[in-house]
Write a structure and sequence with these properties.
Structural class: alpha/beta
CATH class: Alpha Beta
Strand order of the largest sheet: 3-2-1-4-5-6-7-8
Radius of gyration: 18 Å
Bound molecules: NADP nicotinamide-adenine-dinucleotide phosphate
CATH architecture: 3-Layer(aba) Sandwich
């Protein structure tokens, strides 16, 4: 059993309780594992004994991420590199197919990769980048890999945020209400939660679960595309934000802890927190169906 506290920064973090679990033989896929919260979570999970698939944007980034994890003590043989531009649905689909073939049983899927755009970028599918990366990529991977997670009676974890809101299913590309990066990010993070509750209903009774993590305000590169005063404020926020290790802890806990038995929870710091979009089942189902249509059409 490995009880790792690697990366703990006494200046910015409180000590973390070790998670008493041995993940030997468990296969865990982590998206956005090349940097930030996902990278730290991947490290902790491999230190706990798991076999971790490190999903990054490119083969070079995934190889570099694995080298960085090994340099910090991870066993190379427990790490597998995968890659896809998660803002390109054809690449996401190809990734999902490869993962489904490689892992008919998948213990944990952590959908974590995310972007916070500085300007509006439309993808080749005619959809906005943050919507594709932060929402449709999660949905495509969950849709394709849910069978493997069910087979393992495993866990799905979505990284969302309390920086969320303003989602209107009838104006997802915000052509009616106006676009900016914050609004695009916030609506994507609201969607993550609503869609997780829709998946929880579908997984109910299967032994597989889905839970959602809020990592807190974390010193990562997520806001690197923000410019002007907002960009400066985002950089200043580093002074008060927690370490990526602290931010990643809730993902690790949701993925690994024996304390986590249930589904459809929203967690920060290993504690359940309220979600204001929990009760509107009709809106969750409408959004879920819309995402499935977008995935099929593009
Ligand atoms: N930082 C915070 O305060 C905070 C708070 C709440 C929630 N979150 C959430 O935490 C998650 C991780 O963010 P982070 O803070 O760790 O940011 P980060 O350091 O920028 O890491 C984001 C990860 O996602 C990957 N990614 C982004 N776009 C991608 C794409 N098109 N294709 C493939 N990979 C892509 C990044 O790869 P590249 O480096 O190649 O782009 C990187 O590995 C996100 O879902 C974010 O919304 C963060």
């Amino acid at each position: 059993m490995s009880l790792s506290t690697a990366g703990y920064n006494p200046a910015m973090s409180r000590p973390l309780e070790p998670i008493p679990v041995d993940l030997t033989g468990k296969r865990i896929v982590v998206t956005g594992a090349s940097a930030g919260i996902g990278h730290e979570a991947a490290l902790e999970l491999v230190m706990l004994g798991a076999d971790v698939t490190v999903v990054a944007r490119s083969a070079a980034k995934s190889a570099a991420a694995i080298d960085a994890l090994v340099a910090r003590g991870a066993v190379r043989a427990r790490l597998v590199g995968e890659h896809a531009d998660l803002g390109a649905l054809t690449e996401v689909r190809a990734l999902a197919d490869r993962l489904a073939t490689a892992h008919p049983r998948l213990d944990v899927l952590i959908n974590n990769a995310g972007c916070y755009p500085g300007q509006r970028v439309m993808t080749s599918n005619g959809l906005e980048e943050a919507w594709v990366t932060n929402v449709l990529a999660y949905e495509a991977l969950t849709t394709r890999l849910q069978g493997a997670v069910r087979a393992a009676r495993g866990r799905i974890v979505y990284t969302a945020s309390t920086m969320a809101g303003d989602l209107d299913v009838d104006d997802l590309d915000r052509s009616r209400r106006g676009w900016n990066g914050i609004k695009a990010y916030r609506q994507s993070k609201q969607a993550n939660r609503m869609l997780a509750w829709a998946w929880a209903r579908r997984l109910d009774g299967s032994g597989a679960t889905i839970n959602v993590a809020h990592p807190g305000g974390v010193r990562t590169n997520i806001a690197h595309r923000q410019r002007g005063l907002w960009g400066v404020l985002n950089r200043l926020a580093f002074l008060t934000q927690r370490s990526p290790r602290m931010g990643g802890d809730v993902l690790v806990w949701l993925a690994a802890s024996p304390e986590v038995g249930g589904s459809a929870g929203f967690y920060k710091d290993r504690r359940a927190i309220p979600c204001q979009w929990r009760d509107d089942v009709a809106a969750q189902e409408r959004l879920w169906a819309l995402c499935q249509r977008q995935l099929t059409a593009s």
